[in-house]
Each structure stands twice: as C-alpha cells, then as structure tokens.
Amino acid sequence: MTAPVTILVNTQLSENIGAAARAMKNFGLSELRLVAPREEFPNKRAYDLAAHAVDVLDKARIFATTREAVADLKRVYASTARPREMVKAVYTPPEAVAHMAEENLPTGIMFGPERTGLTNKDVAVCDAIITIPTAELASLNIAQSVVVIAYEYFQKTCNLQPVTCNLVHKSEFATKEDLQGFLDHLERRLDEVDFWKVYEKKAKMWINLQNIFTRSSLTEQEIRTLHGVIAAVIKL
Amino acid sequence: MTAPVTILVNTQLSENIGAAARAMKNFGLSELRLVAPREEFPNKRAYDLAAHAVDVLDKARIFATTREAVADLKRVYASTARPREMVKAVYTPPEAVAHMAEENLPTGIMFGPERTGLTNKDVAVCDAIITIPTAELASLNIAQSVVVIAYEYFQKTCNLQPVTCNLVHKSEFATKEDLQGFLDHLERRLDEVDFWKVYEKKAKMWINLQNIFTRSSLTEQEIRTLHGVIAAVIKL
Known about the structure:
Two copies of one chain form a homodimer. Chain A is α/β, with parallel strands linked by helices. Chain A folds into two domains: 5-157, SPOUT methyltransferase, trefoil knot domain (Alpha/beta knot); 176-233, no CATH class. In chain A, 45% of the residues lie in helices and 13% in strands. Chain A has helices at residues 14-26, 44-50, 54-59, 66-69, 93-103, 120-125, 142-157, 176-192, 202-214, 220-233, and strands spanning 5-9, 32-35, 61-63, 75-79, 89-91, 107-111, 128-130, 166-167. In chain A, helix 1 (14-26) links the parallel strand 1 (5-9) and strand 2. In chain A, helix 1 packs parallel to helix 7 and helix 8 runs parallel beside helix 10 (220-233). In chain A, 39% of the residues are buried. Residues 160-169 of chain A have low confidence and may be disordered. Strand 8 of chain A pairs antiparallel with strand 5 (89-91) of chain B, so a sheet runs across the interface.
C-alpha cells in the first residue's frame, strides 16, 4: 500500500504542525504538505513539538492552494467531523484505510485549520470524507485527528505479529509436570503444618489454591522461585 | 462496559495533562487520576490545552503514589512500549479494550512520565501491558498514547452489545488494595525469614514474585486464602 500524504490546510499554530509530524513518523507516514500555513514555516515551535520527526518537517513542502497541493494525487480524503451537504462517501478511519489499501493509489488526507475546519470548497476537491467517531460535543485537536488516522494506517499496514496475547518472558513456560511438582511440594508442606484444620474441607480448599497457580501460566523460573519460597519459608 | 480510569504518573508537563483530558472527553472517558504530577496542579497550561474538557480537569484527583491511585480498581493496564522482562500479557489497544469489555470491572490505564515512562515497580502493579504498535524509532507523546487508547475504547463501546462477564467466579475479584495487602504481608514475612539472602537481589526477585500474583486475577476469597496460607505456614 502506498503511504498517504498528509495535507494540513491553513494551520494556525505551528505546534500542531510539529505534533502532526511526530504522529506521522510514529505511524510510518513521512510526506507532509502544508497549504498556506498561518505562521511562517519552518519555525522553532514546530520543530520543538516534532521530537524525533525532524526529517518529516525538513522534507515538508509548502503550497499556496489546496489545488496545487493535491495536483499529483489520485485520491484525496477530507478529515472532517462536520456534516456537509454534499453527496460524498463518509468513512470511519479503518474503513478509509481499507479503501486506500484496496485501491493502492497516490493518496492524500486533508486536515483543515484549527478553528473552522476545511471549507466546503476544499472538501469538494476530495473524493470522500473521513469522520472519526467521537463522543458528543467533541473537540478534536488537528494533531489528535492525525494521530488517529495515522494509527489506523499503521495498524492496517504493519505486519502485526499473529499473536493476540504475547507473554513476555525470558524463561520458558513450565510444563504441567513442573507445575504439578510445585503443587505437590506445596500440598505436602500444607499437610505437614496441618493447614486444613478440618480435614473434610481440604478437597475444596486445595482445588481453589491450585487454581491460583494453574491460571498464572507460570514459567520454569517462576516455578523454581516458588519452590524456593516454600523451602525458605516453612519452618518445621 | 465500565469506562476505564486514566492514571497519569509523574507527568512532567501540564500541557500533556490538558491534552490527555481533551482526548479523554472526545472519546467518552471522564475520570482522570494524577499521581504526583511534577508541576503544581491545577494550573493554567493544563486548562489551556484541555479545550472543552474543563470538567475532566475539575474532577481530576491527585494521589501521592500509584498504589493509592489504583487501590479501588480491579484491573490495571500499563501503557508502555518498552519490553519488560516480566511475565505479563501484552495487548494491542483493541485487544485490551476487548478484554475490558468482557470483564467489565473497575479498570485503570496507567501512563508514565514523558521521558522515562513507567518504572518496573509501577508496571508490576498492573495486570497487563498495552503496547501501541508503532513504526521503528517511534516516540509517542503521552497525550498521543491517550488519544489512541481512548479512541479504541470509544470505537468499541459506541456499538457495543450489552455484555456480561463470562468469567465463572463465586467471589468478587479483589481490589488492588486487597491484593497489595496480601503482597505486603508476603513481603514482610519473606523479609523476616531473610528469604532474599543477597539483599541486592531483592528488588528484581520481588517484582517477579509479585507478577505471579498480579496476573492471576485473584478473587477476594483467594486473597483471604493466601493470607491464611502465609499465616499458617510461616513459623517464626
């Protein structure tokens, strides 16, 4: 999938240009176009907010009009929350990214100025609208909108590991035999100190106790530690 | 689904607290907890960046420690990109939100300070980790991380079917305060029997030991049982 170009139209605050660049870089986007930014660009505040995304700002190109900024593109999406009286598709961010991936064309995503958003004239240039679903009375900052859409782009395109739940561990998970060895050790010691007191209650209590450890996905190292705890701690 | 609480730990810049509040409100989150913010709070810069989310800041509660901030919660997620040598589930934002919806418990999401992120000690308190997939050499701003996770929360809940918790348990899940009470008890006893032997090793060993219990989703009944085990078993 061709990475889309980010187009910021008439941005008022340079901080937002910097924050947008930072979000872009975090999520694998690199091409920034600025249409008539209100403050002189480049400037320090943009760079301060860009953090590691210096290269995104260095390479940013400035255009006088949206028309020029989109000239070489084949698809343009307008990011806007405001309903427009236009016959135009409105997508959520993941829907828009799915379309981009499907079409795989040179694409731009256009974001309007902070206070007013894109004009109808600018939206008219766009093929479709992206609206980020929000709670009522939302007030999305322009850089926050870039975060969400860039994030969705990256989720779609990155080769996410196929694991859903990645347990981070240095040590291998223990076998059931190792786990059972620990549970046997624990049970023996609890018997020795007469933990159960009322023997009839043991069966149920012991099942409950085992469950605490059974569902922890213990590693080999942790099993060794737990053996150590029992050995060190129970004084007979 | 119960909306998760946002917990910002040792935040350096008040602007980030404001921007986080704005993102929260945009995506239907309202409860903000601040653990020892580095600048005096409330302050003007936080409110300037919060835009319409004044109420989120007005209601924000300040805690001296993460421990106090999570005391009444039953699940806590750590937002961190740094791999940790801990045995703990790592979820993407949509996976984490799916878990939250399934469990429907009082939940917090913890974000660390700007430069350093969460300490291992803070992560050890958490049930699982949320890592936002990013491009290489990413540098996610804390408020941008809040945007992504809050966005995913809203996407999940805005068309969510009513869910019931399918976890089978007779007893309620323990609060973090209850869990911490047990861990304190265990640590005290291990200190008393000089379990650590080489004191320098304690910090790491203790984090590993805590993680075994932190990720077990212990119920109130199980916490009581574990207190009982320690009390019965350790003979001084």
